[in-house]
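Your task
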Amino acid sequence: MGASYYKLDIENRDSVGKKSTKEMRKEGKVPSTLYFKGEEPESIAVEKLKLYQALKSDQRIYEVELKGESQYVMVKAVQYHPVTDEILHLDFMRVRRSEKMTISVPLVLVGKPIGVTEGGILSQVLNQIEISCFPTNVPEQIEVNIDEMELNSSISIADVSYDDDEVEIISAEDINVASIAAPAAEEEITEADADDAVEDGGEKDDKSDDSSDQKESSE
């Protein structure tokens, strides 16, 4: 099922340059640029508060209205202040509803593996997966069931699937996703090891006594 998209309000800006962008930031707006494939980019502005709300929504695609037409965009690049981490400028890229796009979405492990039940330790190596799909059909996440994972086993992208013919997984199949390793074995001191340690100590003591006797004889 495709995700619903956060509606992001934008406005055109006629003036550009340092003075204009400085005034815009004072007004609580973030100067931005909207790029179109094969077309001239548009200079726009976004209210800072609404922009931060949109970014916190964890969505990758936003719906905007430009010149009376609804469009879909995604963030292409973000410029941050070097000290405060405040967003200074944003680049948006328009995506067409009729054209597939490449995007990364969260990869989520679900289930309780057999190997973990047996005491193994689960490690997730990959947290995002790259897919190709239409902008209106972007899944919120891709899930992979790991119930059958055993001790000392691993899964890769080749083991991940998504039940939608319009969503294609394009990450390389040999990329490791997760693995279950046996816990590190604790070093145990056996009774035989203890006996050897005692015997080694005794030999050292005997040698020490012999050297003392030789020293007294020489005197």
